[in-house]
């Protein structure tokens, strides 16, 4: 049987991580995988997570199964973080998932059940796992233009033109904030235009929000999601706690369904629960429990928000510094986009040869499409990166 298996494409980001680890050079700089790192290059356990884990160790009396859709308290707490109070509870359905990735996978499965001929529309570019999961599940996909390689900003005209091709029953995958891999994001008026078009076409948005709190703030980063959620009769939201709670390996995500009415929401809930049962029965609980404890406790929540805000403003300061260093070294404003982008990533717009030169000649690792993880920098390495970028001729 196994002799029938064929080789599978590698996860390029993971392959790059491996290459970085094997590089013996001392001054090497890792701007690859999308994991937050502090100035010392450490991905810390957040204070509130540590505190919650300590309490949990003391009070947790059982590790018996939760529900098939996870603990409802977790779903409610995380949904409130993402959506605020903009959608009445009776229209919501939710199921805990192993990470944001699990939530996306389950959303595509839900689309497959509800609308098997649907095309799922993806931004060009997008996170490589999006097309990979959709292809794996045998669904059709199409791309909409998103990034203008010249200005390194959103190509909104191109996006709207391409989205005119949406058909009723299709799904449109949107990044809720902090677009991966570009760092370029929609403005609120642009979100409104996208929402209007989706409603007009009778499509369903699938919003992937994996970096809430990493861009302009917890509330600000959710503004586009809330706007679109209020504008459409139905939507899916795949939320991840990996980054903003720093609990990557705990696999903590949530799929939220928004339905037109309470009756429809009940059926959607049954389907979400059914899908969990088919795929893994019960979702992981440890990360979800920590998130619930933090969001439900005023003190823990305040401390988590304060630490997250430090993470966010630290990355913004690095963006400003890098844009400044590049302005000084290149004698031009053409790198100003780095300060305009939000989240962990910016797409530099370098050629594959330049990305290669950065790695080979300067020990600087970024993804092949020239996506760099801003959190991989610190005060000392920003000038080194700026120098190298100018040297390789970006
Ligand atoms: N969506 C995007 C765009 C991401 O970058 C990530 C990154 O990690 C995820 C979803 C989901 O992450 P996880 O499955 O670790 O929660
Ligand atoms: O884009 C990134 O780097 C993060 C982390 O298969 C990641 O989203 C990378 C690859 C992968 C899963 C997560």
TrEMBL record:
Record InterPro entries: Aminotransferase_I/II_large, Asp_trans, PyrdxlP-dep_Trfase, PyrdxlP-dep_Trfase_major, PyrdxlP-dep_Trfase_small
Cellular component per GO, a single term: cytosol
Cofactor(s) demanded: pyridoxal 5'-phosphate
GO-annotated biological processes: L-phenylalanine biosynthetic process from chorismate via phenylpyruvate
MF-aspect GO terms: identical protein binding; L-aspartate:2-oxoglutarate aminotransferase activity; L-tyrosine-2-oxoglutarate transaminase activity; pyridoxal phosphate binding
Aminotransferase class I/classII large domain sequence ranges: 27-389
EC number: 2.6.1.57
Keyword terms of this UniProt record: Aminotransferase, Pyridoxal phosphate, Transferase
UniProt enzyme class: transferase
Summary of subunit composition and partner proteins: Homodimer.
Protein name (database record): Aromatic-amino-acid aminotransferase
Organism of origin: Aliiroseovarius pelagivivens
